[in-house]
Specification:
Layout lengths: L3 H15 L13 H15 L15 H5 L4
Keywords: Signal
């Protein structure tokens, strides 16, 4: 029991030193608006390529150029 007491005291001191009471985010972290924009971009990049494909009935190439009004 006497040998365990210093280990317990050391563990308590280590845990107490990890809690500095400062709840503010680090200076280099993004703002909530920036974080939302980053998350939105990540969702787009993580999207399946199949969900980004053009619809089957969409004209692509020369066919679609013929329908444009210049």
């Amino acid at each position: 029991m006497r040998r365990a007491l210093p280990l317990v005291a050391l563990a308590v001191l280590m845990l107490a030193s990890a809690c500095d009471g400062n709840d503010s985010p680090p200076a280099n972290s993004p703002s909530p608006e920036e974080a939302a924009a980053i998350n939105g971009a990540a969702e787009i990049l993580d999207a399946s390529p199949d969900s980004l494909a053009a619809p089957e009935n969409m004209a692509i190439g020369a066919e679609s150029d013929a329908n444009l009004a210049y």
